[in-house]
Amino acid sequence: MYIPVKALFDELGVDIVIPPKISKKTLEIGLKTCPEMACLPLKVTIGNYVESIKRGADTIVLSGSCGPCRFGYYGVVQKEILRDLGYDVEIVILDPPREGIKEFWERVKKISGNSSLYKGLRAINKAFKVCEETEKLLQLVLKQRCREIHKGDTDRVLSRFEEKIRSVKGAQEILDCIYEIKKKLENIAVDNKKRPIKVGLVGEIYTIIEPYVNLNIEKRLGDMGVEVHREMSVDGWVKFHLAPDIKFRRRQRRILEEAKDYLGLCIGGHAWETVAHTLNYSRQGMDGIIQILPFGCMPEIVAESILPTIAKDENIPIMTLVVDELTGEAGYQTRLEAFVDLLRLERSRKENELGEVLSWN
Amino acid sequence: MNIGIPRALSYFDYYPMWQTFFNYLGFKITISSPTTKDILNKGVSLCVDDACLPVKLFHGHVADLVGKVDAIFLPRLISVSPGEFICPKFIGLPEMINNSIENLPPLLIFNYNLHKDNRDKKNAFMELGRQLGVDKRDVKRAYKEAISRQYINEMMLESGQNPVVLLHPKENWGKLEHSKGVIGIVAHSYIVCDRYISMDIVRKIRHKGYDVRVVANVSQKVIEDNLKAMPKRLFWSYGKKLLGSGMEWLKGNKVDGIIFLSSFGCGIDSFIEELVRRHNARQLRLPYAVFTVDEHSGQAGFDTRLEAFLDMLEWRDKSGYNFSSHGQDVYSS
Lengths: 361, 333
Hints:
The structure holds two protein chains of two kinds. Chain A is an alpha/beta fold. Chain A has three domains: 3-115, Rossmann fold (3-Layer(aba) Sandwich); 120-145 and 147-194; 196-361, Rossmann fold (3-Layer(aba) Sandwich), CATH 3.40.50. Chain A is built from 15 helices and six strands. Chain A has a four-stranded parallel beta sheet with strand order 4-3-5-6, with helices on both faces. In chain A, strands 1-2 form a two-stranded parallel ribbon. Chain A is globular. Chain B folds into two domains: 2-158, Rossmann fold (3-Layer(aba) Sandwich); 163-318, Rossmann fold (3-Layer(aba) Sandwich), CATH 3.40.50. Chain B has helices spanning 11-24, 37-46, 53-65, 88-91, 93-100, 120-132, 136-158, 163-167, 189-192, 201-207, 220-227, 237-249, 267-282, 299-318, and strands at 2-5, 28-31, 71-79, 107-113, 181-186, 210-214, 257-263, 288-293. Chain B has a four-stranded parallel beta sheet with strand order 2-1-3-4. Chain B has a four-stranded parallel beta sheet with strand order 6-5-7-8, sandwiched between helices. Chain B is of the alpha/beta class. In chain B, helix 6 (120-132) crosses helix 7 and helix 11 (220-227) crosses helix 12.
């Protein structure tokens, strides 16, 4: 998910440090230094910062927002934590421009150095493109993984991609790399007749897109032969909030509007999207839906209490998974397997007119 | 019509306003009974597990009103001041209640959103009046009355009255002629004022001979002034109150010790507590304790910690700084 950002800064000629892949160590740094009650993303990102600082980063850029979700105040709290840890770095928070256009511009200038406006806009445009292509690639992975004939093919290609992308520089090279991998993915031997179980993934954006935090849920489900549908993505966020993509916005608006019987306003975070996508997925004919959230996430808790009503009204199984630093792998896997088994049973019951089938294999 | 008001969350901040409004219009109001173990248990069983204690408690209070009243008043406080929010769970409260409690009477949802403009306050009450089917002119008059009653209450709090004492005036709160010192409690009003979940902390401290300051005693202006030092505008109204008053007390000579009373799972507290603690550790090093309450909190453990904290304050005054509780001993060379 850092790829578009990398493209942007490469184009601007700014040196960047990509934090190492999140590991247990990253999380441990966060756990030691962060408030216990804070949400998981805060802890993980602090770990990212510390690891990047050790590799030579001197400025941290993060986007901001102005509430009501806690994310909007990450920058301030993290600055205090880093200060007490003895790291003297600059944190640049990119708040939405309406909080003061002048300040916004100054902060942008601070990170972009002395690039001209034209160069800046061109870089942004290219970053958008990279963002879109990356998302397309990841969606293709989701599609191929559950249908692959030789287990592990898709993931092998994907890990090669992750290695390679770190070494290339500039938007064009990144795009080339993406296209190359995409071709390889398309050539994977797949079973096209297979009709996999379809599961929609909803919930808090960071937990959904960061594989370490969600214990690689996409891979786990894919390996069970489940097709994962995930609307929530960096690309979607960019298109909805930053890029002038009217068609995409209209579609999202419509999805949100449809959910107004359950939740009719934005309560921060992605709770509204969670509820709306759940409804949308169930009407698209998904077999089941999984909501995933970090422990203590304020907006998602509201969504969590609404989902059972949707499950009842739309007659669709919904499972909520809460992840935190203590989430065990085995229990997680068991819950996923049990859920998928339930969905298989449900489907075979629907298909078999007898209706009284207990075994599904 | 008999309208039920849950005695939880924003009730403790806005009860003068709401009670006056309904009373003026001639409605009978029933406030759910003060928190008991039963109410808490009911709330815990109805609400999703991950919610914070006050929200669970709110569920319990609504459940307590079911069957007793004709309608339940549910405030949806989105924002109480322009550009700010309360907390995501406050905003989604009606949805949470609606989806987790059965056999609910009709809900009077009060949408209070001053995010854009302070003048929307009146519109919120006009909408409530429409839901109740009352004449517009009456609503206007009731609104004025309610606002002024609320204002009086806030003035009383700012002059130093304790909100818990105001709620229970008849009780014995202990004399304060020779108070040994002042303890500042940084906590949301809905925790301090609920005597069950706050373990009656105000009375306990007062009976130990200390005076208590709470967040409501600090005026909004002082809070705003203190928050100017923050690098980024804080956008939670409740968080602002906590951080602003915490920083005011940290300026010195205002209080002798600070207790941060937080509830388990409170998202805002997790950040604010961190900031207050780190500021304290850098500047003044006032005696500082964090108490976290949840549905399992035991009375005895809480009392012991509180007593230990107050004892420490006294010893600190008596024996000066002869011993350090942390780090190197002063006598060792």
